[in-house]
Design goal:
It is an enzyme of class 4 (lyase). This protein is an alpha+beta fold and about 160 residues long. The protein is about 30% helix and about 30% strand.
Length: about 160
């Protein structure tokens, strides 16, 4: 069994859609970024890549490469999953915690889990997604951004 950890944070910006876990969330601002800014999928992708001993998504999808401008993070996660499968890795489970003062995310978490599970080829019961706040503290507490931490466990065919 291998384990990886991932983290991502993006600032909130006017005129952007808020997308988390491949799910559109109604809000007056969205996450700024070269891609769609989905911190949940970015942190999961980095956790998976870390568990496999690979480069992070910043190296695989550089923000100075126009090919990735506006890319869907579902596409990023799909590509990461494909690369892992090609190298003999299988995702066992992922777990994530999103830190956001607003909006309230709990109504959207079941869809996020379903989206992630579908891409990773695992049951939704193997995808944990939680949300919390930072109690008004710091950058996140001042409603300037959203962050996410993730952990993933993987198995490789040759591992015993």
């Amino acid at each position: 069994m291998r384990v990886g950890i991932g983290y991502d944070v993006h600032p909130l910006a006017e005129g952007r859609k808020l997308i988390l876990g491949g799910t559109d969330i109604p809000h007056d601002r969205g996450l700024a970024g070269h891609s769609d800014g989905d911190v949940l999928l970015h942190s999961i992708a980095d956790a998976l890549l870390g568990g496999a001993g690979k480069d992070d998504i910043g190296n695989l999808f550089p923000d100075n490469d126009p090919r990735y401008e506006g890319i869907s993070s579902m596409s990023i996660l799909t590509r990461v999953q494909r690369e892992l499968l090609e190298e003999g890795f299988r995702v066992h489970n992922v777990d994530a915690v999103i830190v956001a003062e607003e909006p309230r995310l709990s109504p959207y978490i079941p869809q996020m889990r379903k989206n992630i599970a579908q891409v990773l080829g695992i049951k939704p019961e193997r995808v944990g997604v939680k949300s919390t706040t930072s109690e008004g503290l710091g950058f996140l507490g001042k409603k300037r951004g959203i962050a996410c931490w993730s952990v993933a466990s993987l198995k490789k065919k040759e591992d015993r």
